[in-house]
Amino acid sequence: DAKTTQPPSMDCAEGRAANLPCNHSTISGNEYVYWYRQIHSQGPQYIIHGLKNNETNEMASLIITEDRKSSTLILPHATLRDTAVYYCIVRVEDSSYKLIFGSGTRLLVRP
Amino acid sequence: GAVVSQHPSRVICKSGTSVKIECRSLDFQATTMFWYRQFPKQSLMLMATSNEGSKATYEQGVEKDKFLINHASLTLSTLTVTSAHPEDSSFYICSARAGGDITAFFGQGTRLTVV
Asked: What is the rounded distance in angstroms from the CA atom of residue B82 to the CA atom of residue B47?
């Protein structure tokens, strides 16, 4: 699976958009980009995933560059409850379906 | 999203005893379940993958005789930490995936403390 690189920490103001970047320059054509987040002392929560096209759901938007070497998770109106560690994971769609977690980005939403 | 439930959420056990953690998929049939452990201030580390009715596949460095995984039904997987020691104290998290679905959902985690 391709390696991902994320900034260790970020912060944003409550009510503003939070844009979390992820680099995955070695991604291959059949690898999906997944985003999960983990709020302290809880299990990870699925946010969104995509392959080539940009995706949007009720939680966030995922913007994938045309060359697929990087992506950005956008929380359009961050709240204090969005404070968490955000993990960007690239995974091959093979029979294992394993998710290998990196170190993620610790997002702090400030009042 | 789908609901995955772990039990117990917290457990304290004595050194040398065994402890079982349950992971249930409440509203879907989980073809594949995964077990992770997480130490403080660290990321999740995948321990093993189990498919219903098959033996679990363990990641390199994970002792299969110490961490027994059973996935006997499509809604239940168990992780038994045998002969627990204080260094086994950790946050254990399961996730589950339905057949035909590429997304995995996670339980709330179990904090194990071995004293």
From this structure: 15
SS (H, E, C) B25-83: ECCCCEEEEEEEEECCCCCCEEEEEEECCCCCEECCCCCCCCEEEEEEECCEEEEEECC
Q: Please name the member of A32, A46, A101 whose beta carbon is closest to the beta carbon of B44.
A: A101
Task: For strands B10-13 and B30-38, give the pairing.
Answer: unpaired
Please tell me if residue A104 touches chain B, with a CB cutoff of 8 Å.
Answer: yes
Per-residue model confidence as pLDDT tens digits over A9-66: 999 999 999 999 999 998 988 889 999 999 988 999 999 999 999 999 999 999 999 9
Structure-token pair, residue A18: 């939070």
- Tell me the per-residue pLDDT of B34-84, one tens digit each, with 9 for 90 and over: 999 999 999 999 999 998 888 899 999 999 999 999 998 999 999 999 999
Neighboring chain B residues of A103 at a CB cutoff of 8 Å: 43
Among A7, A87, A33, which residue's Cα sits nearest to residue B38? A87
Mark out chain B residues that contact chain A at CB-CB < 8 A. Answer: 1, 4, 6, 32, 34, 36, 43-46, 49, 57, 91, 93-95, 97, 102-109, 111
Cα separations (Å) of A58 from A42, A63, A75, A81, B27? 21, 15, 10, 15, 21
